[in-house]
Amino acid sequence: MDLLPRVALVGSCALLAAALAACQAPRGPVGFWSRNRLDAQQERHGPWRAYFDSAATKLASRGHYRHGRPRGHWRYYAYQGQLDHDDRYRSGGLMLVRHFHANGQVARQGQAHLESDSAVVQYYWFGRWLLYDTIGREIGWELYDKGYRMAQGKGATNVSHKPRSSRQGSK
Question: What is the pTM of this model?
Fold first, then answer.
């Protein structure tokens, strides 16, 4: 056998192996819609998902970052897969927070504040938090000031809104 056909055969095999390896190699995010990207300052930016496991099958949280700061609607899940709580980030570090019962009904809802500087991040509940039973009826309230419960009460308040239950299928 001539040397030229052997070199061509070995070269073809090497190209085929490289092409197969490239198809199976993990690829990074592509496009602005991709998850878990960093901006030019190496801060989280865009859609973001965190997982309990390295195989990325058990979702822990999902939401959006804008230049390292969480924005919009974030959902946090229990290890078993049901929605544990969600946060809606507002301007100025304000957040609307809802915690859920295992059946998807709202357990409590209220406001929180997120303050951060280069060294410290502080998160605390404030104002009136409404409490609900497992079928969605208001059963009481708690009053918070900078994360400390200052008062609590039983029974419904005169607030006329009813909480929305979680949507289990919206992962």
Answer: 0.71
Residue that is written with structure tokens 């301007």 in the block: 91
CA dihedral (5, 9, 11, 12) positive or negative: positive
Dmax over Cα atoms in the chain, in whole Å?
A: 93
Query: For residue 13, how many other CB atoms are within 10 A of its CB?
Result: 10
Are 106 and 164 in contact by the 8 Å Cβ rule? The answer is yes
For 24-72, write each residue's pLDDT tens digit: 334 444 455 568 999 999 999 999 999 999 888 999 999 999 988 899 9
- The secondary element (H helix, E strand) that includes residue 18 is helix 3-24
- State the number of CA atoms in the 13 A half-sphere of 62 facing the CB: 11
Element (H, E) at 151: strand 148-154
Phi, psi of 160 (to 5 degrees): -95, 5
